[in-house]
Amino acid sequence: MTIRKENTEINPAAQIKPYKHKQGSKKEQVALMFNNISAKYDFLNHFLSFGIDIFWRKKAVRLLKPFSPKKILDIATGTGDFAIACLKLNPQKITGIDISKGMIEVGQKKVKANGWQDKIELMLGDSEHINFNSNSFDAVTVAFGVRNFENLHAGLKEMHRVLKPGGIALILEFSKPTLFPIKQLYQFYSNKVLPVMGKTISKDQTAYSYLPASVQAFPEGERMADIIKSAGFARVQIVKLSGGIASIYLSIK
């Protein structure tokens, strides 16, 4: 069995790419997509979620607070929103990595404009090949990015590797609500409204069609918890947000 087949069986979203008619791996296409929408990403992120994504990040940060992490690695950091939110934890250093140069550049401008350079460093980096030594961080986080990993298991293994023993991993990701009427409203909005509004504002024809398609295919709940455990984590706590529209997975090394 090939690695690609194994990865598809673990994570069906691995075969969902932003641009169906373009060549390139999922990783290459995801980087291209975020480069294309980086200038409008922050506005779209808050506008299309009605600002509820800010509440979700705050909840995730509160869950990290009891662990008092001093060195934090934020994977798929994008423009650094979650890294910035983690300043509330008063860490010594937050490092954010992302495969999109465009997103990192937007994030670096925000960090510089607010004088956070002594606390936050954003740089290009690959979730499947993290350029840091083992046992380097007290906490590793991914907010709305793990769904975009080309190889989910490899990315989770890398998160486990760079964490110190007893360190905390936090994943914040979209999931699929099951309760009426949240399920029906969410499906209508994500499949009908979001792609049209996203395309109009971002000028990218498929980026906001990729979002609901990748969410639909991505593992969640206990299935996701089992995948996280298979990467070496001892236990996983699941916290559902807003009726199941998003979920937080907390894991201890």
Describe this structure in words.
The chain has 253 residues and is of the alpha/beta class. It has 9 helices and 7 strands. 45% of the residues lie in helices and 19% in strands. It has a 7-stranded mixed β-sheet, sandwiched between helices.
Q: Regarding quaternary structure, how should these chains be classified?
A: single chain
CATH hierarchy, class: Alpha Beta
Estimated share of beta-strand residues: 15-25%
Q: What is the annotated CATH architecture?
A: 3-Layer(aba) Sandwich
Sheet with the most strands? Answer: 7 strands, mixed
Helix tally equals 9
Which strands sit side by side, in order, in the main sheet?
A: 3-2-1-4-5-7-6
Uncertain runs are: 1-6
Q: Please, how many domains? A: 1
Q: Based on DSSP secondary structure assignment, what is the total number of beta strands? A: 7
Q: How widely separated are the two ends?
A: 29 Å
Question: So, the CATH homologous superfamily?
Answer: Vaccinia Virus protein VP39
- Compute the CA-based radius of gyration: 17 Å
Examine the coordinates and then state which fold CATH places here, giving the name of the CATH topology.
Answer: Rossmann fold
The helix/strand order is HHHEHEHEEHEHHHEE
What structural class should be given to the helix and strand makeup? alpha/beta
**Rounded average pLDDT:** 91
